[in-house]
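does this look right to u?? FHN version
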Amino acid sequence: MVSPFVILWVSYPMNKTRGSILMVLISLLAFGRVAAALDAGPAPGRDARLKWWREARFGMFIHWGIYSQLGRGEWVQFNEKIPGREYEKLAATFNPAKFDADQWVKLARDAGMKYIVITAKHHDGFSMFRTKLSPFNIVDATPFKRDPMAELAVACQKYGLKLCFYYSHVREWHNPLAQSFEGTANYGNFWDYPDESRKDLGRFVDEFAKPQLKELLTQYGPIGLIWFDTPGFLKDEKAGECVDWVHSIQPDCLVNSRVGGLQTGWDYASVGDSEMPRESPGGDWESPITDNDSWGYNSDPNNRYKPPGVLIRMLAKCAGMGGNMLLNVGPTGEGIIPPPAAQQIEAVGAWMRTNGESIYGTQASPFKRLGFGTCTQKTAKLYFHVFDWPQKELSIPGLKNKIEGACLLSDPERKALAVTQTGDDATVSLPSQAPDKFDSVVVLSITGPAEVAGYTPRQKFDGSVSLPAVDAKINGRTARYESDKDSIGYWTQARDWVSWNFRLKRAANFEVQVTYACDEAYAGSEYVVEVAGKSLTGRVKTTGGWSTFLTDTPGSIRLDAAGDQSLAVRATVMPKGAVMNLKTVVLKPL
Ligand code: FHN
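got this back:
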């Protein structure tokens, strides 16, 4: 079953908090039904349709439209409430003479991307393709007059990528019929079309969206997928019609989950915008990730492009959780992919040329967590993506299979690395230098399908033991793990406590380091750290807020016995209604 959070899909550029809260509520309403839908089993032909997509793991997203000329993102019309008549004038100046479909697709191909999803029509309602449904389109309304989708189709054919279309089927600011209200929030065009009673989403879908989809699915050859967005309150029935419509015209064309909140029949789930789930959502999923702070081109010099290392690790993490990464670029109004974006993509491409084997066609990691990075797998092969290169050896916890061999994926000779295996603990000897700054891949050949024991933190090579909140057992009523702060919060009952099991290889004296946050108004609790029959006491000080963490050292402790141990943190005194937000406990050898 796919975890419910795969459908927490949207955070809005114009009012993130309001938009996110609303979408969380909508998503919560949808949980049961999506889960039920997925439990009902795959739609006929779905596995066959998804074959190329599961193999691909990496695609390019392109947000490009007449808004790109302004350099203020794709939401500029809504954010600035630009009247339709004014906004339409942008078509008259749109002449992206530097657009070169071949160059764009080649850039994607060289980066190892296998599909391109481009905005055929975004919320502004401007069609970036030849259409009979509206004169507000790139061929009829601009001096450019060309159909970029036709040119991209040729280039995709040439370089062997799948061409796919983003299509905004509910939210539109140009067509007066399109939806405005989504619950209490209004993301429609209420400044040009204030009379809500004249809006009719059903008619908009039937009379405009579906015929346009038909054009997209009949004018450009085989289309890999239709990427629907912002379903809002589209009725299940209508969303279902959209899915069937796509499949009836091109049975092999995939449809993502944003077609509707509660749909059965879509092919894969889109998680939230630029969301990196903490654990695998399960099933087939994809994360759309912007390369900077915007989707459409943003000329603000403060716009932060993600460094290549971040993107490479995101790609590995997605694959490690069994998902795809759809990396977005926002070309300019002239039709070029901004140089910082192109450079980023080239750097990811360089990594993919060496390490692509560890991404394409892989499945999710069999390990719940790996301290050093992540893992992907294929039959009889495990690919360990090592982000934090350990000195000398890589410790692999809980692998039950026999290891037949190990090597570095970047080593052209694939020289064998020494491996020792004791029970379900394995160590692989490594060179001292990481072969890659961001993600070095260590390949293990194993017998049979990977079998992994439950995760227990292990003592590291430097002798330290790190016990993060995410691995803690939380005993109690209110305390819970908060992923945004990566800590245990809501610890508002003194009797709640947390504990970890861990495995010690070598006895030592350890300094105990407790990292926590505490708001000034709640400081003053007392806690104890208990391990191996010994205990240390600490007092919780203010750290300046619930998200500001500091490290406290309540003392040191000797652990004599190697083997399985457990450590607990309890509150002994809680004068002000909360204990702390606990992030980690680290045992540092003295
Ligand atoms: O509102 C859009 C946004 O502009 C962008 O297209 C993203 C991409 O996933 N989707 C919507 C918000 O979720």
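The chain has three domains: 4-358, 373-446, 465-589. idk if thats expected tbh
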